[in-house]
Amino acid sequence: MKTLPTIALTLAATLALSACELRREGGEEAPDDETGEETGDPQALASPTPDASDAPIPSILREDVEEEAAAASPQPEEPAEPVEITLSFPDGPEISQAAERRLIGLLQEDAMDEDWPVILAGHTDSGGNDAANLRASRSRAEAVAAWLVERGVDNDRIEVIAFGEQNPLAPNALPDGTPNEEGRRQNRRVEITIAPPGD
Length: 199
Known about the structure:
Elements: H1 4-26, H2 42-45, H3 63-72, E1 83-88, H4 97-107, E2 118-123, H5 130-150, E3 158-162, H6 181-187, E4 189-194
């Protein structure tokens, strides 16, 4: 008659052999984990089945492709347009606040980024003699030139022309010969032209 310890050892050996047989019949070996030890749970190493709700939705448009396409075929820039503005100088050679606002807007024009000449044409009314009117028209144009240079415009681009009273916008006198004050105020001006040479 066998003793209890002998029976227990026999049962344990039988169970171990049965487990080995089952593993061999399945044809799979338990994979090792990163530490080289066998994990007792084959489910822990099985790759999870992806869930359709977890998968990212592919985008039709890819940002990197769009950027590469834009870099490969850049859109042509619109060419700068010439600029012509008139600044009023109703009360002498000083730049008024209204004129300064227009000059600030002028600095934002695309034409300022080109290497085009900046023509400043000074004008006066017909009051006074020709020499005085030429000096006054030059003073107005030079005041504008100084303002532009102070704000970074290259002095070599600027050309000052004094016209005096030669090119009035409005009549300096009314039909009865009396002074046309409104017309004279319009004639005291500086015309600014920024355009390619030869235009």
